[in-house]
């Protein structure tokens, strides 16, 4: 019995985190959807954003979530009018004055007439009337009660506009309740001041909540949460005030000032407002925004809540739009989303975030300097998809004979063999491979059970073949803005991806380079091409594209040179002698001359130049016919949706002709 100790396992309760038994996250459909957008002409970021807008199977996307938020926003705009407190104070004031005058009218005493004169002299504006009657000796009990209701209402509404849900807590409040509010505001100012100085601690916040937690039913879990809630409400209060008429705003501000002064809170509330501004300067302080405008009259507290909800819904709508620079799903506030649409909306957002993370984690997307790029893995899949679509069309039309059994790498056998290297596609020499394994293990002791031959990597040999002539293919793709305007850019991009995939996977002895040209030309890696949108710069600089193609062909002198050009317009740009690009429409004779001269240089390399013209304009067709005749090539005029079919079939036809020689 072996002395090795058995491996031990421990089992316990799962405490959350990723489910270890969950199946791998399936990204197949998502990658294909992104691929469809990319092959349609979009960039990678645009394609991912489009997928996130549409959503995944069974989950709402950003567009549907935003539509729901916009509907909530529409409803919130009709919540009510902002002048409810003024209206209610005016009604109570009129009731008090009417009751007092009824009480004074039957009294024949001169003092009653003086009192009536005092009431008649009360200012017309609500705030002035409330101030003027502050010390008035009411004779009517009904009038006194109405005026006291005004005082109570103002205390509750003014505080409720700064601290949510304060109105109910202070109904019929006594001196002790008011003192508790004053103590809370004083301690709150000290807490926020300490936070702004960077001196706040968890213990300080905990002590504050233990003492004053009854004033904050939303139960903030940190000083940051507390400040965020208060600052948002303070900003909403300013926004609410800005939504009133100038007269209403002046009266309400006057009433608020009186109330704060009567409660002994004027200086503390002013200090608190300044501290909140300092803590959250990013909020839209003092900015005028949307305010509710419905039939129901809202008090100050409810009006502030309604304005705060509007502001939150507007911010959430903007976050879900992702239409600003640097937008990210991390910007979407889950708390706002849950308040607006419920927990299922947060789950939908989480699914979109997981999709974005998995695309990176599983290697389909890379993030470089904050930009998303398709990984080589995704580009290979994209090229294969584009190629599969092209072959499907070739099958449907009966063109091409594209099903090649070998990879095109092997020629006639030479009778010799060599060591296998990674990437070799030559036939395996089985006899020599087994012989190498036998010789390598000949000296090892064997039992009756170990008579099989163990083959290692170093034992493999492949048969040598004559090297077959390959092709060097330069594919020039027009990137000018007219390609997008005519709707041909997506087809050109998909065609380039398909041809690159075909050459690199099925004909590895061939070389291919993709060259994009607009005002200037550039060599495009497959990853760059996948991300690329058309160039908004003017110009079709075919001359520069041909120059780059000629340099590429010079590096593959032993290969048969092939140049394929996809364009929708005559050359309108060229490079000056100092290398600067020059553009002119209609084309200048010099542009045409330089382009023709470069084509002749390409022709002298022995290259076949075929042009795929995507615009039936007679001027373009005449020009490219003249151009291709100089290089022994041809002109094709395919519809955009058949471009890939034409280009791939032409490449395959060229290969068959080369192999037959």
Description of the structure:
54% of the residues lie in helices and 9% in strands. The protein has 661 residues and is an alpha/beta fold. It has five domains: 27-77 and 323-374, no CATH class; 82-167, no CATH class; 175-284, no CATH class; 413-465, no CATH class; 471-656, von Willebrand factor, type A domain (Rossmann fold). The strands form four sheets. A six-stranded mixed sheet has the order 7-6-5-8-11-12, with helices on both faces. A two-stranded antiparallel ribbon has the order 1-2. The longest helix is centred in the N-terminal third of the chain and has 22 residues, at 141-162. Residues 399-410 have low confidence and may be disordered.
The CATH architecture term of the largest domain is: 3-Layer(aba) Sandwich
**Which residue ranges are poorly predicted, with pLDDT under 50 across at least 5 consecutive positions?**
399-410
Distance between the termini: 71 Å
Counted beta strands? 12
Please state the structural category.
alpha/beta
CATH topology tier name of the largest domain = Rossmann fold
Radius of gyration: 40 Å
CATH level 4 superfamily of the largest domain: von Willebrand factor, type A domain
The CATH class of the largest domain is identified as Alpha Beta
InterPro entries: VWF_A, vWFA_dom_sf
Q: Quick gist of this model?
A:
The protein is of the alpha/beta class.
Question: Which descriptors apply to this entry?
Answer:
single chain, 661 residues, alpha/beta, two-stranded antiparallel sheet, 25 helices
Helix and strand topology:
Layout: H1 28-39, H2 44-54, H3 62-76, H4 84-104, H5 110-120, H6 126-132, H7 141-162, H8 166-169, H9 175-196, H10 202-212, H11 223-242, H12 246-263, H13 266-279, H14 300-321, H15 334-341, H16 343-361, E1 365-368, E2 371-374, H17 376-397, E3 413-419, H18 430-440, E4 461-465, E5 471-478, H19 481-485, H20 489-506, E6 511-517, E7 521-524, H21 526-531, H22 542-554, E8 560-567, E9 573-575, E10 581-583, H23 589-604, E11 608-613, H24 618-629, E12 635-636, H25 643-660
Parallel strand pairs: 5-6, 5-8, 8-11, 11-12
Antiparallel strand pairs: 1-2, 3-4, 6-7, 9-10
Helix pairs in contact: 1-2, 1-17, 3-14, 4-7, 6-12, 7-12, 7-14, 9-10, 9-13, 11-13, 11-14, 15-16, 17-20, 17-25, 20-25, 22-23
